[in-house]
Amino acid sequence: SATKPDGASPSLRATARVTPWQAPLLPQLDANFKALDLGAFLPQAPRPHLSGTVQVQPLAPDAATADVAKNAAATASAATASKPPVKADATSAAKAPQNWRVQAHIDNAQAGPIDAHLLPLDSLDVDADWRDGLAIVRDLQAKLAGGSVHTTGQWQKPVASETPPDDSTPD
Question: Could you report how far apart the first and last alpha carbons of the chain are, in Å?
Fold first, then answer.
């Protein structure tokens, strides 16, 4: 491993839980990295020297959502008590709510302009949730290009229309 200009040797240590036959494929990740150079993996990528941590953890549904789900499961269980259990398949797993907590702290020891194949990012701190199509940013702080950004907010994934769009055009 080569030593980077900041004196650090590149390293990456990660642990993950992988569930290949159910969604999500990678429900949990803990990564620590030092002097990571994205350009070493993809030649067209910038060449920053990133160090930090990224954690992705499963997030329990809201208490209200959990109570609704528990009541629905109890009702379904009572209705199907005489039937043999049904094994969950990939389709039902893919439809299950996908909820994660994402936390990251990343420093860039070699910030610079994009046209020099660098990233204009000095640091990034993120604390966010993904709740089945809703991104909730509790806190995002970034220092970049001589300035800084501090924000919170949320974004909702657009819901697909149940009916296909009308592609007909008048003649």
Answer: 66
28-45 pLDDT, tens digit each: 899 999 999 988 889 999
pTM for the model: 0.68
Which residue, among 71, 138, 75, has the nearest Cα to 102 in the 3D structure? 138
* Mean per-residue pLDDT over the chain, rounded: 78
At a CB cut-off of 8 Å and minimum separation 6, what does 90 contact? 21, 22, 23
* Segment 159-165 long-range contacts (CB within 8 Å, at least 24 positions apart): 159/133
Region of 132 (left: φ > 0; alpha: ψ -120 to 50; beta: rest) is: left
Q: 49: burial class by Cβ within 10 Å (0-12, 13-18, 19+)? A: buried
Q: In Å, how far are 55, 100, 114, 149 from 26, measured between CA atoms?
A: 12, 11, 31, 30
